[in-house]
What does this fold into?
Amino acid sequence: MAQQNKVRAPRNRTLTLSSSERLSYSRRLLRLDRGTSTQAILNRTIHQDLFEVCDHLPTGFVDLLFLDPPYNLNKTFNSNRFKKTSLDIYTTWLSDCLDRLKPILKPTASIYIC
It folds into this structure.
């Protein structure tokens, strides 16, 4: 079943973008390949693998980290496939994510994990 034809639950409020909207927004996405300043990424959306981008982010600039990692389930989201792993492997992976993010957090930062 195509994503746009998917039957949604009555209270689901997921937004669906047209092809032209998707193209327009995708042009505004940011990818980092070197260190950057806070000003260069302020109010921008970085679309990149966490483990690729962490070393390029400024130190100590995040007040609130909102992290929505893939759940430890078998799931396909668009063209991305996620496979369930053991709890130990998933916990290690999530811990590695948080360790990579520590340098970008302010000492008073809060973290929200879905």
